[in-house]
Amino acid sequence: MPKQPFPKNVPALTHKLMALYGLPHLIHSMVLLPLVLFIPSYYADDLGLPLASVGMAIAISRLLDVFTDPIMGILSDRWHTRWGRRKPWLVLGTPSLILSTWMVFVPSGKVSVVYLFIWTSLLFLSFDIFDLPYK
């Protein structure tokens, strides 16, 4: 494949545009970092669940990504709308991402390992919907 020269009239990226592009990754980091650092000890120490069970629930829900990541990638690649292929997924994934994040970090009622597994699974699925098309 022959190399094509880089066009000379390409406008420079502005700081605003770069910040807007990086914003979804900031959201990603603001949720996932506390999830792996704070949630296991919170559910074990404060809510009384066995730490091994908490770790297993999070690990199994994370393993579901093995199946959901490729599916989301295929859907995102084949999705065509007037808004583009990627932007609708960011909009569609946001409400479930907010809800699942809230339910994991601010659990209501009696909390169990099943509760944690369901909501972390939905959280990771929401990240797939939100984040994979963005990347």
Can you walk through the features of this model?
The chain has 135 residues and is an all-alpha fold. It has one domain (26-131). Helix content is 71%, strand content 0%. The chain contains six helices and no strands. The chain has helices at residues 15-37, 39-46, 51-63, 65-78, 87-105, 113-131. The chain starts with 14 loop residues before the first helix and ends with a helix. The model has no long low-confidence stretch (mean pLDDT 85).
| Topology order in helix (H) and strand (E) letters | HHHHHH
Low-confidence stretches: none
- Report the sheet with the most strands, covering strand number, pairing sense and barrel closure: none
Distance N terminus to C terminus? 26 Å
Give the overall silhouette: elongated
Total separate domains: 1
Number of strands: 0
Number of helices: 6
CA radius of gyration: 19 Å
Helix content: over 70%
**What is the residue-mean pLDDT, rounded to a whole number?**
85
Structural class: mainly alpha
**Beta-strand content bin:** under 5%
List the defining traits of the structure above:
0% strand, single chain, mainly alpha, 71% helix, 135 residues
In short:
The chain has 135 residues and is mainly α. The protein is built from six helices and no strands.
